[in-house]
Amino acid sequence: MIQYPRYRQHRFSSFQVIIAGFAAVDLVGALLLMLPIAAQQRCVTPFHEALFTSTSALCVTGLVVQDTGSYWSAFGQSVILLLIQIGGLGVITVGAAFALLSGRKISLKQRSTMQEATAAPQMGGIVRLTGFILRITALFELVGAALLLPTFCADYGLRGIWYALFHSISAFCNAGFDLLGTEGAKFVSLTQYAGDPLLTTVIAALIVFGGLGFLTWEDICTYRLNFHRYRMQSKVILVTTAFLLVLPTLYFYCFEFTAGSARQRILLSMFQSVTPRTAGFNTADLAAMGSTSQALMVVLMLLGGSPGSTAGGMKTTTFAVLLANMWATFRRREDAEFFGRRIDGSAVKNAATIAGMYLTLFFLGAFVIAAAEQLPMSVCLYETASAVATVGLTLGITPQLGILSQGVLIALMFLGRVGGLTLIYAAFGSSPAHSRLPQEKIAIG
């Protein structure tokens, strides 16, 4: 008997589902923003500008080609805020939330996709974790809005309620979108509140809290101040985050913001150390900062927040693992270590791969934009770091870029948000290969 080969029906991997979900929501958001009702002038927004804004909001970046406060109507701002919330939580998490609220059962395949989307260590308890993510997000955003309410209501009246909610969600989701621009003063971000300790502290705290990661918050809520019972990952995230907040603050205070009172300098230094990872708000004139400070902010942007958080970038754990591997190599140790635990070799390989991918996109994107726009490479590097790390900070060139350069930034924002390994596994498959080739040594260094 002749046996014919059986063809299996193609099944999408969880990584492909995540990317497809982001792309679909991105396109719907762009179409909604093209509607005349989305603009204050009731005009049809060009598709490339609507797609840029939709991608920036969904990827919680904050780069804009139109000032959010002066160009978009209440409807357009609501669409942007919804995209920010979906992007911050993740398309899969939002979809799972609707499924849970409707009483539908979550399949094993859906749980696997949710695990990848939330960077959870295991599939067990993923539904409970999703519920925790929704509760902790609502808590921080509502408390943040309540704390911002007095300032915005004092300045904008009843509109201040909308401003407080919008900026609280934008900050916790590390988006960086603001509504403070006017027709006469566009793209101002939070510069008018640079000396306001309440607003800058609340916004900075929301950015940090959103960037710590939901698994870290689960440890904090479960074990309180009992630090030694936290997951190793949570310990690494907290220590690395503290390191990346304190040292840049000291640098900015001593070398960048040297004028004004001590309180003003502390507020400016603290906020500019927080916002590059990866929020996009600013309280200082970034273009007026020194080249060394701008370079430091590029590094902070690329490092980003933590896995399973609302932030982007290479992630704090990637940075920490690479440093630990360097230290192990210096000491001629076989394995990298954290808190008395050995790091799996695959984590080191993944960290090196993610770092290499982000740096490649960062430099390649800047090269294309610099060639297309005839701009200095340093300015373009700042812009591409902001895009690929989904930060949203800019030296002011974004609105003047051509369609090609905007397309480059759109691609960088999308690729940066879905994540390095998600992109790689979706393109090349997530099933590990078990065959091994003959080994031969190669000189390194």
TrEMBL record:
Membrane topology: Multi-pass membrane protein
Major location (coarse): membrane
First and last residue of the signal peptide: none
Localization annotation: Cell membrane
InterPro entries referenced in this protein's UniProt entry, alphabetically: Cat_transpt
UniProt superkingdom: Bacteria
Record-linked Pfam families: TrkH
Transmembrane segments: 12-39, 79-101, 132-149, 161-181, 193-216, 236-255, 311-330, 351-372, 403-428
Alphabetic keyword roster: Cell membrane, Ion transport, Membrane, Transmembrane, Transmembrane helix, Transport
Descriptive protein name: Potassium transporter TrkG
Organism of derivation: Faecalibacterium wellingii
Lineage, broadest ranks: Bacteria, Bacillati, Bacillota, Clostridia, Eubacteriales
